[in-house]
């Protein structure tokens, strides 16, 4: 086998290794915490905090209403008991009853508003919780797929590395060194020759270069300097 073909095969493996390494980098960069899950978790925690605050306000309003109702019941019982005969005292007590009723009505309206907020917040908490569970399930599924893909790429890279080692072991070290220098300089060190054209620079080759390339020896394109490989 000519050295040009050997170097071309080595280049094919190197290109596949680079492609697999890029794929592995892309896959591993996607492993880890999900921003969508984190954002939704924060939204849920904020809404749960609002719900807790609304429920606390609701309980406080209910306790205050109970206290007002207790005082109102006692005041009305005294007012209608007939025990108080003094008109001024009766008038004052009636004012107290009226004030307690007004306060009770005010608190009941407030409690209804708070109750409505609690219900709305409970709905939002339930909605966000469902969304979070779906996001977590999808994230876990994706993470498993990415982990499996990463493992396959690692195995592939290991196989390619072994294959490269075997190929490189059959090529003279100076040729490999020259090939590697060309790859650093041009990206592609070995160019196929098809229909008399160097596929590295797409320029027709002189007849003498084509004849030399057919020998399989290390021949460079006079235009781009790449190693010519004629299949």
Short description:
Helices cover 77% and strands 5% of the residues. It is built from five helices and four strands.
Could you explain the architecture of this structure?
The chain has 231 residues and is mainly α. The protein has two domains: 3-10 and 172-229, no CATH class; 31-158, Helix Hairpins (Orthogonal Bundle), CATH 1.10.287.1700. Helices cover 77% and strands 5% of the residues. The chain is built from five helices and four strands. It has a four-stranded mixed sheet with strand order 3-2-1-4. Strand 2 (197-198) and strand 3 (203-204) form a beta hairpin. Helix 1 runs antiparallel to helix 3 (87-169) and helix 2 (35-79) runs antiparallel to helix 3 (87-169). The chain is rod-shaped. 13% of the residues are buried. The mean pLDDT is 94.
